[in-house]
Amino acid sequence: MTESQTLHQRFMKVWSNLPGWGTLAAVNHTTVGRRFMVTGAIFFLIGGLLALLIRTQLALPDQEILNPDLYSQVFTMHGTVMMFLFAIPILEGAAVYLIPKMIGARDLIFPRLSAFGYYCYLFGGIIVLSSLFMGIAPSAGWFMYTPLSSADYSPGPGSDFWLLGITFVEISSVSAGIELVVAILRSRTPGMTLSKMPILCWYILVTAFMIVFGFPPLILGSILLELERAAGMPFFDVAAGGDPILWQHLFWLFGHPEVYIIFLPAAGIVSTLLPVFTGRPIVGYRWIVMAVILTGFISFGLWAHHMFTVGIPGMAQAFFSLASMLVAIPTAIQVFAWLATLWVGRVVFSLPMLWVFGFLFVFVLGGLTGVMLALVPFNWQVHDTHFVVAHLHYVLIGGMLFPLIGGLYYWLPLISGRMSSERLGRWGFWLVFIGFNATFFLMHLTGLLGMPRRVYTFSEGVGWDGLNLLSSVGSFIIAAGVAIIIIDVVLHFRFGRKAPDNPWNADTLEWAAGMPPRMYNFASLPEIKSRHPLWDQPELMKTIPAGEHGLTQIEHGRRETFGSDPVTGKLKEVMLLPTNSWLPLIAASFLAVVCVSLLVRSYSIAVVAAVLAAIVLFRWSWENGGHPKAAPLGDKEPEEALLHSRTTDGSGLWGMVVTLLADGALYLALLFGWLYLWAVAPNWTLPEELVISLPAMALSGLFLTGATWWFAGSVKKLKRGNVARLQEEFWIVTLLGAIHLGVLIAIIVTSPLKVTETAHDAVLFVMLAFLIFHSGLSVIATALQALRVRYGYVSERLPYEPVVLKPLWLFSLAIFWCSVASFLLLPMAWGVA
Amino acid sequence: MRIRIAGVTVAATSLLISGCSGPFSTLDPAGPAARSVLPLTWTMVSVALAIFFGLILLWLYAIRRNRQDLSDEDAQRLQNKWIIGGGIVLPTVALALLLLFGAPVGHKMLPLPLDEGEAMRVDVKAYQWFWRISYPDTSIQLVDEIHIPINTPIDFHITSQDVIHSFWLPRLGGKIDAIPGHTNVLRLEADEAGEYRGLCTEYCGQGHTIMQFKVIAHSAEDFEQWLQKEGGQNND
């Protein structure tokens, strides 16, 4: 046996998934990423079948194949499945699968979170989909406009399935977003500075940040709407001082960034493939990075272009119109950078490149109609017609599906070690490409001829017959193409010829992780010298598996990877990664029980399951740091650097801060809702006098401030190595926090809030509940820290966890006083209360 | 390629047969609002197609070119040329022109005070799934049918009783949403007497498809007559 084979076997002992059913406890990014992608592909096929139903119904005028009720369920679910269960998860799955391999890491930084995210996605997806098979699917359209989706106009459980199921799925999106940010910033192989990162990592980094900021508004909106439906809190009810347009703002605050969340990773695939197939580095790397970051920012400033017909003020329309057009600039920069790359390179026109060409063709057309739609007077004409349907499919299918399939064919040899059929692949491409344009190009005209969205049929002779028939024929051509692609991919796993090493002569590290990849990716973690490691250091293909680089000790049985400086990529610490664990599956299962019991409105079961889920999650946090299942003191320490639990700046701190950014976005969305209703809702009334006792709030805040201050002080001492009274101090903080929490709970219980009568009181209730949740979390976590000090899992040499917890205290403190100021004092200053 | 050409030909033919007309066609305007958008539409379509084909041709040419003798400095210069020219200058100029010509069109459609006289007001309230029309200062109540005089700006004051709907008369002009608790104003005008069809464009439940209405535009005298007759009948 050669040395690298021995090394491989020793690594596999530590990195393998458990056998049999134990594979469900897998946390490894390769396994989890593959599961994400396969599940996403299945949802894509389901969404596609729904699309065929729609096109069948619309093929001829005056058909009754689907009745209006079923049709509304079908189009709602088509949009929902494609956006929430296919597009985002499959791209995240691809990122989860590829990113660690590209940055030379052995796994993502929070492996249990990857697995947890997957199960949330799977269970949430199954719950949402089950409604379709029971015939009670959501039917208010995929953007769920209130009041149509409210209890009065959608009395069945359909909307609840959407709100609860999709929120459940979003847990997975946000957790993957957080994890990808931290992994990209903190776990790159030594020498990989920010500017030497593969370009795809930049795209994913920006996308992940956008997920972190973009999803919370929708999560908040869903919580509010579900509270309105289930508990009668009238956030969106005009009569009680709410406003249905608030939902649209919250939805599109998420919904527009989401379009770019879907587009950017796909554009990243294009930017990755082009240099490989032209044999030259991407032209304008820095320009592209800048453009991608710019896109991320602009995408948060143009949500209202979905709402030009709502009657928002003229100035606002002008602003959003301009912003929507501006986003064309970073996109154009990328298109021309790609063009320049082709211009200077020698192009090998393989199958993935065909899909890249299809992408350019379709996406550019979609982008151009996008600019047209941003012009308000034109928008007033074609908004909510089939013109928009055509536009969004050009952007989403062109901007996402084409590059995704290109990427699939590109990375397929990596996943399977085999090559697919070039011949079948070309048939698949041309059928999809022709079918797509036949279906959707004509729809622009259908829309200009006045056909609105979401009508279940149309009458003969208004000029829409021929176009609809052709569109329907086109959709079945797409389906034939997709079928061929599936056959090709499935067959290739068995019949494909063995792929040579690095078959496309790519420049990025994932091709050195083995084909198919080894569970640990790299037996030794190399020092990177340039942006194109496999072009400039081709010996890496051999030296990595031979164990000639860093972090090769494995006899201690720990999963480890390098932690590095976010900018310079210099080695900072050794990150301990958790191994196989059942906790993610168990936690997600309890959350699924919460979700289902909320759906059937058995709240006692929901509470029990939520408590159980919380216990499992705290157990999860328990198996960290110096815990015997992690890396207790006395184990063999790594040679290269300290284990991260021995430091005060590990991945956990970064994870906490990024999580709090998402949390802060949620809070800002709530604050926005408050101010929006105040400014716009026609029947908004501030009560005669403040119903919440200010002195009580001040008292509660005083204790919170004390607890936070004390905790920060203890952490400061801990960092200096002074742990004499650490446990005692944590108990004091717990006590102070508990008093603060007790007062806060007393306030919410005793205040005469009329939560079902006025939107004003309902918002105050949510605000208080938000504070209670965070303070409660801080208090419990601190009590657990005190216990961990007693067990010796936190100590002078293990100072890591309290440092991670500190930002949570600061956040709780910040939102408390911010809430007092903006929800209680501001209205008083206005002179109303 | 041949199939695509065939597809395009079929589409073009079918379009020619059906024409750009049709009771809901935005391409067959019958009032100043819809008519002022049409040149914008055609201009944008032409420019968009020109940019599109330009890019595709450049892209195809770049693929076929296959020269790799460019030095890194040449590549750098080329990069700046392409990215600054195509990525920044081209869209900036195009967008500036678009706004220059487009913004005034939008502005003119707004229900601003007229130079002389006042626009006629018609109140529209949307229900699942019909439209209730009333004329201020009269007792006229109509369902799914609106009578207006030609060559007179009409301000439709639109709201909703239940869910969100959207009011659209494609041949007369743009649409606006009917939202419970809010009233939106849409100004439209018809050039010629006749019947114009309208529909709801915001999905509003199972009757969304059938939520259509019509506008009957009369000459000034005919409208006066109609008003007398309707008002008279209702007052009885």
TrEMBL record, chain A:
Which keywords fit this entry according to its UniProt record? Cell membrane, Copper, Electron transport, Heme, Iron, Membrane, Metal-binding, Respiratory chain, Translocase, Transmembrane, Transmembrane helix, Transport
| Any one GO molecular function term | heme binding
Principal location listed in the UniProt entry:
membrane
Record-listed E.C. numbers: 7.1.1.9
The Cytochrome oxidase subunit I profile domain is annotated at 21-529
Q: Which is a Gene Ontology cellular component entry for this protein?
A: plasma membrane
List the membrane topology term(s).
Multi-pass membrane protein
Give the GO terms filed under biological process for this record: electron transport coupled proton transport; oxidative phosphorylation; respiratory electron transport chain
Looking up InterPro entries in the UniProt record yields: Cyt_c_oxase-like_su1_dom, Cyt_c_oxase-like_su1_sf, Cyt_C_Oxase_1, Cyt_c_Oxase_su1_BS, Cyt_c_oxidase_su1_bac, Cyt_c_oxidase_su3-like_sf
Instruction: Write out the annotated subcellular location.
Output: Cell membrane
Recorded coiled-coil stretches: none
Catalyzed reaction equations: 4 Fe(II)-[cytochrome c] + O2 + 8 H(+)(in) = 4 Fe(III)-[cytochrome c] + 2 H2O + 4 H(+)(out)
UniProt xrefs under SUPFAM superfamilies: Cytochrome c oxidase subunit I-like, Cytochrome c oxidase subunit III-like
Where, by residue number, does the polypeptide cross the bilayer? 36-54, 74-99, 119-141, 161-185, 197-225, 259-277, 284-306, 318-342, 354-380, 392-412, 424-449, 469-491, 582-599, 605-622, 653-678, 690-710, 730-750, 762-787, 808-830
Q: What class of enzyme is it?
A: translocase
Question: Which superkingdom, per the lineage?
Answer: Bacteria
The record's section on NCBIfam families has: CtaD_CoxA (TIGR02891)
**According to its UniProt record, which protein family does this protein belong to?**
Belongs to the heme-copper respiratory oxidase family.
Protein name in the entry: cytochrome-c oxidase
Q: Provide the organism lineage as a comma list.
A: Bacteria, Pseudomonadati, Pseudomonadota, Gammaproteobacteria, Alteromonadales
UniProtKB/TrEMBL annotation, chain B:
* Membrane-crossing residue ranges in chain numbering: 37-61, 82-103
User: Record's Gene Ontology CC terms?
Assistant: membrane
| Entry membrane topology | Multi-pass membrane protein
Extract the GO molecular function terms from the UniProt entry: copper ion binding; cytochrome-c oxidase activity; oxidoreductase activity
User: What reaction gets catalysed by this protein?
Assistant: 4 Fe(II)-[cytochrome c] + O2 + 8 H(+)(in) = 4 Fe(III)-[cytochrome c] + 2 H2O + 4 H(+)(out)
- What is the E.C. number? 7.1.1.9
Whether Plastid counts among this entry's keywords is no
Q: Which residues form the Cytochrome oxidase subunit II copper A binding domain?
A: 117-229
Could you tell me what this protein is called?
Answer: cytochrome-c oxidase
The alphabetical list of record keywords is:
Copper, Electron transport, Membrane, Metal-binding, Respiratory chain, Translocase, Transmembrane, Transmembrane helix, Transport
Q: Which NCBIfam families match?
A: CoxB
Organism of this sequence: Pseudidiomarina insulisalsae
Enzyme class name:
translocase
Family affiliation: Belongs to the cytochrome c oxidase subunit 2 family.
One GO term under biological process is: ATP synthesis coupled electron transport
Q: Which PANTHER family match?
A: CYTOCHROME C OXIDASE SUBUNIT 2, CYTOCHROME C OXIDASE, SUBUNIT II
Q: Major place of localization?
A: membrane
Query: Where, subcellularly, is it found?
Result: Membrane
Keyword Transport part of the UniProt annotation: yes
Q: What does this protein do?
A: Subunits I and II form the functional core of the enzyme complex. Electrons originating in cytochrome c are transferred via heme a and Cu(A) to the binuclear center formed by heme a3 and Cu(B).
